[in-house]
């Protein structure tokens, strides 16, 4: 076997030394013949014209020091010619001064600022996002990740679609579904000075603005009724359908104004400009995530908290009683809670929170923003809090209606720092692939949960996938998608051979089948640090409407009449559950878990003609088998969970949690069935595990704790710090545990 | 090909001689620009970073050690570092495969590319191969840098660079043929 690398280099050097290509090619031996086209290509690259900087004219009689400096031309675009100031350097200047002056000369574009500042990059596109040459032009075209958006252009997101604009110095704007913004101004100056003026015509946007540098920087968001001006902050803007605008701040501060009316809102505060242009006084915010239990006119109750829904409240979808929703709103000075935005919630994270200044601190209760909350020994808070400080309270509603604080934290006033980009590991070459590349359903219902899985198929143990994030595109039917949520949609790490699971929660508009025949969604790996761009696999979900079929023939209920019943598992499940759910063996798309009646449509191997059952796919189901092996339980046990309505992702999560905490998995599923979200379950399980070790003292660390330890835990570092005296709790529990010792 | 300034000019530039700095700039700018043009996916960024290379050069001239690294390699290293910073800042590397492209040897390697290869087509194809392969090809065949200096610059052995060179050419050729077929 010839050493092709060395032969190639030898021949390339011959070319460099002036040998004709024909002669070099002729000198190749037969076993190195494959190098011929490579040598030709190398020779072509060397000989072909490359983009050449166009040199500006040199005025006659000028010395070299006064030579006009040159600037590059664009090879593909019409050439531009710049006139540069003369080089006027002073020998006595410091290196820094020299750098600045030469920069001015060399840059040529100094006065215009960096060209990269004149465009923002679209990233994290989910669903369907479109760009137009201007908002008025209406020439919308589909956008894709990496597209550059320039001044004057407009961007809009359709239903269930989101996108992020990244500006050249790292600031970001994230657009929620059904949002339209125009880039009225987009420019910058040297020294990472950013100049942005966005015109938000509709929808919701969130902004993370890196502290602006220099006196020429600005970042403004215009709405039909007002304007937000920031200098480094994280904030949100909502433009309502009637023109009202709402502004809220997560960190930093924002100046909100309309004409001569102006207010400054700080972290945890919000304000509204009504359709008449009146700017409200700043108020504090509240956030509720929980079940909608009552709708009494304008008074709604979520998670035990009653608030007012006004004509200005933006309500996504049509939330009904007993449905989980997320509510954002404001606590008005008179104590009234007004909802600004209500959206459906897939994850059952039943969390309620609000912000406000600390009025008083007591042993059994605190008053924050005029609201009394109880505290107990489990309330986590910071010692640094004092009366007058703005704080965020996470609470739960007790049976008697009082609010028990779970956590009270100071609102950060810090301005956001630029996000650090993870550094790729050059030794890791992960390969991520989806378990199946297509799932097809025919259905008439409007809500689905489809499970999928992603496996790192790389061969080496070093091939870890890091910071994996899923994204999705809506290829068809965007107009009928009410919401689309992937849970989870990111993983910090996926080891070689590891399989992770996720659910696609898709909610369609009622009677969607009257509008479109099909909804097609593609799920893909949007981000991965170690081999970005290499994970090209996709999971395509195709839902075909059966709504227009004759109503006299009801859609089949595949789970009601299984055609085959399996023998009970040879290995009884630890719970002693009776195998009530029969498990037919039809092979079908394995990962579909519809929440309502749907008819599966196997797309690859349609040999099955019998009525299928969603509970079981291939026999054995590969995902079920892997989970059984992973957790050392019977296959039947896993599949029973699956057939009782849990996605594989949830099952994996529950067993993982059980393994980490020592809490029996049955208890974890029981908590889930009681309506708790996984976040809450995690906290409860952590507490339970803590209590189960009453006599166990926290082991002394060998070295000083670094705040990230896992004392009191099994030390696997996977429970996110919710167990024992780990980093997260330490951080939040600097205090003495207010109330009962 | 980068016209390397002579030692005397570099020494004068290190002392802040404006004439020497201008001379270095004029001698090296075209090659630096070409490198950045092919190395980045955004033409405006190539123009911006070309300017920034010289700002960095001036502020770092006092740290340049001619005994350790040739001046052209040092200057290209500045440009290369800026491209890395650029991609980190922009965080849209999804389309930049970092893993090496390995081409199936059964591919039709005898097919000749027609004469349509131009800088735009070449840049598109270069942006689809791995960063290391791209570095090697651009530095070797566009900047005209010797293989030893390329190795020094990307901190790999000469043998590793030779391997990257051959595999990079294979990958590039395959992509160019693919692009040609696509437009045919």
Number of strands of chain B: 0
**CATH architecture annotation of the largest domain in chain A:** Sandwich
The secondary structure category of chain A is alpha+beta
Global Rg of chain B: 17 Å
Which tags fit this structure?
heterodimer; A: 741 residues; alpha+beta; Jelly Rolls; 6 domains; 5-stranded mixed β-barrel; 10 helices; 39 strands; 14% helix; B: 184 residues; mainly alpha; Rna Polymerase Sigma Factor, Chain: A; Arc Repressor Mutant, subunit A; 2 domains; 8 helices; globular
Descriptive report:
The complex is a heterodimer of chains A (741) and B (184). Chain A is α+β, with helices and mostly antiparallel strands and 741 residues long. Chain A folds into six domains: 4-47; 53-112, no CATH class; 115-281, Jelly Rolls (Sandwich); 308-410, OB fold (Dihydrolipoamide Acetyltransferase, E2P) (Beta Barrel); 427-550 and 572-618, Immunoglobulins (Immunoglobulin-like), CATH 2.60.40.10; 645-690 and 719-741, no CATH class. Helix content of chain A is 14%, strand content 35%. Chain A is built from ten helices and 39 strands. In chain A, the strands form four sheets. Chain A has a six-stranded mixed sheet, with no helix packed on it. The longest helix of chain A has 14 residues, at 648-661. The N and C termini of chain A lie far apart (77 Å). In chain A, 43% of the residues are buried. Mean pLDDT of chain A is 71; it is low at 54-99, 549-614 and 695-741. With 184 residues, chain B is an all-alpha fold. Chain B folds into two domains: 7-94, Rna Polymerase Sigma Factor, Chain: A; 98-183, Orthogonal Bundle (Arc Repressor Mutant, subunit A), CATH 1.10.10.10. Residues 92-112 of chain B have low confidence and may be disordered. The chains are: A alpha+beta (741), B mainly alpha (184). Chains A and B meet through helix 1, helix 3, strand 2, helix 4 and strand 3 of A and helix 2, helix 3, helix 4, helix 5 and helix 6 of B.
